[in-house]
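Researcher: Let's do a round of design. I'm pasting the structure tokens now; please hold your answer until I've finished.
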């Protein structure tokens, strides 16, 4: 008779390097002042997430993806992993456009909607998604531009219903 062994898994947050900031990150401008130098230096798209407490204090920052010159693959699983481990109540997403053009693409807007919906499901609010450009147009805040969806429960239900139907149809 074989014995069934079950591995016990421990999940922990591992801290890496530290970025220093002496100002609160309480506005899109403050976030951009803090992260612009880092993100604008990359020659490819990079996405990071600022994890926030219930008081909107920044707990930590997580680099989620490094892509190509005009795209990055973002998995909701990877995007929210550090947020969950950090007990974040909310997040601010930031990514760069190496071209310097801060105009969001259709993919950027769809991604932002998916992040907001996924966050609602997890209980982690998306406060903003900021696109970092170059010096002449340093950023675009999707919150300020009205692009961040309100994320009501009806919208979430419709999206979940669509996904359920897709899975159901693929199973045959």
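Researcher: That's everything. Go ahead.
Model: Designed sequence:
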């Amino acid at each position: 008779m074989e014995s069934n062994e079950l591995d016990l898994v421990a999940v922990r947050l591992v801290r890496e390097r530290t970025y220093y900031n002496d100002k609160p990150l309480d506005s899109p401008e403050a976030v951009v002042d803090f992260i612009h130098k880092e993100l604008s230096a990359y020659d490819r798209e990079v996405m990071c997430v600022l994890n926030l407490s219930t008081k909107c204090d920044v707990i930590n920052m997580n680099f989620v993806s490094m892509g190509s010159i005009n795209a990055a693959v973002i998995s909701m699983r990877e995007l929210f992993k550090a947020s969950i481990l950090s007990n974040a109540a909310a997040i601010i997403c930031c990514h760069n456009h190496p071209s310097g053009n801060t105009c969001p693409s259709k993919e950027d807007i769809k991604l932002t909607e998916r992040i907001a919906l996924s966050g609602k499901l997890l209980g982690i609010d998306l406060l903003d998604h900021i696109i970092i450009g170059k010096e002449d147009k340093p950023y675009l805040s999707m919150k300020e531009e009205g692009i961040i969806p309100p994320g009501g429960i009806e919208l979430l239900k419709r999206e979940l219903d669509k996904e359920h139907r897709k899975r159901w149809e693929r199973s045959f």
